[in-house]
Fold these 2 entries.
Entry 1:
Amino acid sequence: MSDLEEKLLDSLRDGRLPCAFAFRVAQEMETGPETIGAEADRLGIRISRCQLGLFGYKAFGRKGILHPFDKVPEGLAVAMAAAADGEKIPCEAVWRVAGEHGLPRPAAGSAAETLGLIVDPCQLGCFLHFKAHHK
C-alpha cells in the first residue's frame, strides 16, 4: 500500500473522505487536489462534506447545506460574475471570491446557487457539471 493510499484510508469518516481532509492530505503529500481526487476515485472512495456546501451532507437529511440568499450583495455578485465563464464558475474561483470577501466557503456556494451558477470544475474532480440547485 502506498503512503497516499494509507493517508486517504486513515482520513475516512463514515467510509467517505471529507473534502477538507482531502485537501489536508494533498498538502501533506505536496501534491495537487486533482491527484487526491483521482486516487480516491481509483480506490472507490467517495468525497463528502464539500467545503462549498454543495454535496456530501446526508447526515443533515440533504445532499448539500446551501442556503440561498434573498439577494446576493452587489459586490459579491459582481466578483462571482467576473470569475464565471457564462453559467460556469470553477470551485477554485468560488474559494478565492469567498476569501476576498471574508466569507465562509458555504456562503460563497450559496451565492453561486442564488446566482444560478454551475460550479465546474471541482478541484478534486468530484463532478463534471453540478448545478447547485438541488433542494
Entry 2:
Amino acid sequence: MNITVENTDAIVADLGGLSYKAMRGAVRAMNRAIASGRTAMVREIARDTGLKAGDVRDALPIRDATIERAEAAFRAGLTRIPLIYFKAKAPEPSRGKGRGVSYALTGSRNRIPNAFIATMRSGHRGVFARKATKRLPIAELYGPSLGHVFAKYRPLGLARTREAFDTAFAHELDRLLSKQEPAGG
C-alpha cells in the first residue's frame, strides 16, 4: 500500500515561495497518514487472525517518505507466521507423553496430535513435529501468512490512509500559511 504526492509542481506554484516548507509538510502528512492506515489494518488483521496486535504490527513494516522520495508505504510479506504465535498450548516439556499441540486460528481451536512445543538453545520457542518416525529431523510448524489477510482488508486501510492524509495535509498547510505574514504588517 503506497501513498504518493502527485502534481507537486502545482502545489508548489499555489504556495508561492514556500516550496521546501510545503514539501516538508506533505512528507509529514504522508508519514502520519501511512501510520494511521497501518493502525487500522493492524486492528482488523489481529481481530481476524487472533494474533496479538504487536506481532501483526511487527509484520507490517513502514517505509517513511522523505523530501527526496515523496512516497510512504507499508506492506505485508507472504512469509508464514510460526504457529507458536497462534496461542499454542501443550505440556512443556512433553517428554514424549504429550497430547499434541492445540492452537487458535480464526476463532476455533485446532489440535496437531504429534506436535510439541520446544525451546531451542538460541532461545527461540516454537511448535515442532518430527518429519519421520525417528527422533530427528524435526520441522517447525507455521500458520498462514499475513499477506492473504492483508489483501482482504486493503480497501479499509486505503480509505483510512486517504482520509488521514487529507486531514493531516490540510493541517500542515494551515500551519504553514498561518506562519507566513504579509510583508506590510
